[in-house]
Amino acid sequence: MDQAKISRRALVGAAAAAAAVTAGAAPALAAAPAPSPSPAPSPAPTPTPGARPASDRRAGGSASRRVEALLARMTVADKIAQLNIPVCLPQELLGDSTDPTGTVANREAYVRGRTVVGTGAGQLRLGPGGGFFGLVNQTLSGSVEVPHPLTPREQAEQHNRLQRLARDTRLGIPLLEISEGTHGSVGPGSTIFPEGPALGATFDPELIGQVYAAVAREARAVGIHALSTITAELNRDPRYGRGIWAFSEDPYLTAAFVGALVPAMQGAGGGLTSDESVVTSLVTFPMESPNVGGLETSSIEIGERAFRQTHLEPWRVGFAEAGALMTEACEQTIDGLVVHGSRKYLTDLLRDELRFDGVVIGNDLRSLIREHVAATAQEAAGLGLRAGVDISLAWDEIYLDQLAAAVREGRVDEALLDRAVRRVLTLKERLGLFENPYVDAARAERVVNCAPHKALALRAARESMVLLKNEGELLPLAADRVRTVALIGPDADDELNLLGEYNAYPALHETPSIREALTRLLGDRVRVRYERGCAVTGTDTSGFAAARAAARDADVAVVVVGEQTSGGYFSPDRTDGELKDTASLALTGVQQQLLEEVHATGTPTVAVVVTGRALALPWATAHLPALLVAWLPGEAGGRAVAETLFGRTEPTGRLPVTFPRDVGQLPLTYDQKHARADADAYIDMPATPLHAFGSGRGYTTFRYSGIRLDDTHITQDGRTRVHVDITNTGKRAGTEVVQLYVTDDRASVSLPRIRLRGVAKRRVAAGERVTVSFPVVAARDLTLVDEQLRTVVEPGTFTLGVGSASDRLHQRISLTVS
């Protein structure tokens, strides 16, 4: 088993580096290279009231008397221990490593300051440890068998026990407990919300804020203080497995979600001491995709202007506006700069320009050696510390004995070590941990997966469903007209494949499959005949005959195909998620053939696609009457699919990413420059997407009319509002997702043909007409990054288009800016 390729956090970082820690010290540090040049000038940000000046933040900032007093008492070994918050791994993966996370005894020894790293003269006995990452994720999301998973009460008691040990040490510094939180806390029993693209499909920032407030509440209840893998980067290459965490390919929509979730998690008004709040760790800064070939850790070749024009907005909102207090440095090189050693990205951009005032996590300091930027572990330690990496998640000699040696030999200034430790201690102080590091175990039992959170998971799953095709209004199915449903496919009766990755495992509560949910919904009124047909992977077609027979015997066939996320990191059949990049976007195994076999029976066929990425589905789109994308909808996903199919709820989700016709079209996002957007067809297929960004439909129809502006002429710092009327022209109430796009008619640089700048969801009764309004703020919605890399608003005309998808703009109007 290749431990170096199991997990980005644990098994790429910690397990792979463990052998190096066991082996001892590395050669001495070479002379450090000069700092990277600062980025090109951009307009100075407006200061946040009460914020410290950039120069103060760069130096580590002023700290409280308590923090400074602690620093004065700390040895180098004490300080280094505070910077190492290792990912918790099962002992069977660690072998003879000094990694202290594999057993209860080892963890307690680390907390007490009894862990020894290095060998010989370079041996180092660490001070009391700084905390742990993912302590509640005992099973690595299902990878490792755990006979007795801890309940929420037991998770809280475990954290309290470790905190008591920490408080009883010479320094009494509380632990900082960090964990994954992509779409729910990962402790067994926690609520499992829909995965990233599913949440993105809701097009509802307010709902996203509510979801992550619940996630924060459950995490803090069991003793977790910070949640990581809250993705602020864009999802612009579906080949990339870790795109499963991201919300959307669009910067406006992603920024809106980030702007909602950060205050919801951290508590409005700085309420981090609350038992409802956690620190938000936005990942991974500044970006990990689009990378070369869609391959994890491969380099990113993108220019500064493109980065600023397209990718910076969610980070600006998350840090400069919402105040997120943690981030993780990406593992990539960007235009040749290894981010873990880049002062340009981790200090100049992050702290000075974006006014970040928190803690930076590093998980791949070894990337500096891998990319031949550092020759030794000591050199890598110096580069990382100077750049601004504060905490290391990987149990790696670089930030352990080799960092100590570099400080001892004068190769790294101890003031840099103090700067990082000061940031970590200040964060612990902001969380109120010095006053109260403990949690109420009984409250954890009441809060985790409580009834309101379960209801919220169901609401999010319902709103994530995206109906892409509904020929002849086959859906919704009517229970009084359908006598038998043939439910077919590998994901039809597999509840684990609905949950995504980094989910609470085991759930400790019900997570019904689509089959279970459909049977409960229909009861005795409709017969549900189930046949698996085939697996998600493999070539076995022995189940096809039974699937065909079931379809022939039914009024309608529902075939559930897609991806597989169950089984944890070790599962060879997992097809999406971390370390599961793909060169093809077609359905895996023989699933396509299964669809064709069922369709050939002549029974009306609905395809339900369970996926964490955009897939290429040209055959299904061309031949099947109905196509529903269910994403990875979480613990209530089975019920949401069943209710959508039978019209108990309507599908109000919209595509947050572009679905291509074929992988050969990549890169393909909706916001293409004019030449690509207007391109002729390939010789073998159209150049257009199969399903455009923003696409989706409900169970009624709408007409757009009467677009108008409050002011048709504004200044470069002005604002106006655009209004449009929408009328429900169908026979039932429905929800329309109204989208506002902007085109700069003439600019000094080439820009995307259209850019999303507004979203509104409106419930409209049959026959009713409502007015939908959007603010248009020039300094926010009409900017570009010019040739000098300045973010500006240029005078000229802009076309505002309003519609139901990026390729369906029904009303347009011109706005002049002077």
Automatic annotation (TrEMBL):
Residues 736-806 form the Fibronectin type III-like domain. InterPro entries: Cellulose_Degrad_GH3, Fn3-like, GH, Glyco_hydro_3_C, Glyco_hydro_3_C_sf, Glyco_hydro_3_N, Glyco_hydro_3_N_sf, Ig-like_fold. One of its GO terms (molecular function) is hydrolase activity. Residues 26-64 are annotated as: Disordered. Residues 34-50 have a biased composition (Pro residues). Residues 1-25 form the signal peptide. Keywords: Hydrolase, Signal. This is Glycoside hydrolase family 3 C-terminal domain-containing protein.
